[in-house]
């Protein structure tokens, strides 16, 4: 039986984790990215502004982690978005669709009671690495 490699991903190009977890873990060809907040990687503080600014920064962090894992937004198969207030759904989607603008991954979105550091948005994802071919089946 062959050994599956479990790679722990850490990049200085995204905000560090705020608790005991890795930015991402790659198991075989699947990338599991931990929840990304709208944190400035230098100050480790939430960016000023509202859900739009925090979503922009969370997605910037997510993209940097995916890149470090030899992946990218084009290889994401599932996103989970956590919102402090579901009324921010529209504002978050406006930013989200600038990053995920074609061949959309599966996604779920939830309002939650509280997020780390009192953030307004957190985004996690599952992606693939290596060569990936996208096919649309109807």
TrEMBL record:
GO CC list: cytosol; mitochondrion
MF (Gene Ontology): deaminase activity
InterPro entries: RidA (IPR006056), RidA_CS (IPR019897), RutC-like_sf (IPR035959), YjgF/YER057c/UK114 (IPR006175)
Source species, domain of life: Eukaryota
UniProt xrefs under Gene3D superfamilies: RutC-like
PROSITE patterns: UPF0076
Listed PANTHER family: 2-IMINOBUTANOATE/2-IMINOPROPANOATE DEAMINASE RIDA, 2-IMINOBUTANOATE_2-IMINOPROPANOATE DEAMINASE
Family, as annotated: Belongs to the RutC family.
UniProt protein name: RutC family protein UK114
Organism of provenance: Drosophila gunungcola (fruit fly)
